[in-house]
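Sharing in case it's useful to others searching the archive later.

Someone asked me privately for the predicted structure of Methionyl-tRNA formyltransferase, so I'm posting the question and my answer publicly. Question first, with the sequence:
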Amino acid sequence: MRIVFMGTPEFAVPSLEAILAAGHTVELVVTQPDRPKGRKKTLTPPPVKEAALLRGLPIAQPEKLRGSGTVQQIADLQPDLIVTAAYGQILPKAVLDVPRLGCINVHGSLLPRYRGGAPIQRAIINGETMTGVTIMYMAEGLDTGDMISAVQVPIDEDDTSGTLFAKLTEAGAKLLGETLPAIEAGTAGRTAQNHEEATYAPNLTRDDERIDWTRPARSVYNQVRGLSPMAGGFTIWNGEPFKVWGCRVVKRGSGTAQPGTVTAVADEGIVVQTGEEALLLTLIQPAGKKAMPASEWLKGARLEAGTRFGGDEA
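And my answer, the predicted structure tokens:
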């Protein structure tokens, strides 16, 4: 098949590779523009662009797909199929109508649950124990199209969004490779989604990163691992953001201490009371410093039992 591929992050790269490995021709790769990254704000290409450059594939990077010249470029190519994987923009009808075999999407959840831009992170944050990948025909709505195939992937107790991304990336590419022959032959099945069962996974915001110590320790633990290693959770200490990158639930703590109170400074980290049980903070990042084991930071930090985390930013 002659295919236009649309994707942006690392999650999408193996799907592009699966298409090429199956012998199909990628006529165009559409991805997001290069963005400033890191403290120095270095202009950095997205992973899909880097992969396309290595393979000598033509690339388009419209800031907004709708109304751009890329729409006409795709129409002129007349591809058999468009494949998207975490592209980051909704495809307009003018694009959806182009390929004779339709447009399909590799989505990191078991639809109709977790439609939207952050299904992997939200599944962990919400304490799910199972997720997966769904390949679906694209429609004008947000992840509302008919489903073609799916695979389940367990969420382990210690999975972060980083480790789960890796699992779903591999599972999605494998599923795509297995699904393409049926699409090419015109024998792929279509199963309508039950829209009444739909849940949504909107993109994460700064508010999603703020730790609410009144919640149970298990809930905060899920929040932190769902945000790691991309953003991490944060609280406030000495009027400045104090990031938490790693933690675990512990039984000890104080039944009378207010949530957010440091109840112990241990060799392995910082014990903080929550609304239910306590958390041991093991990997932290104080303002102006790099992420480090809490045990290392405690060697020079003035942090004592009774200190309160939380409050407002200065």
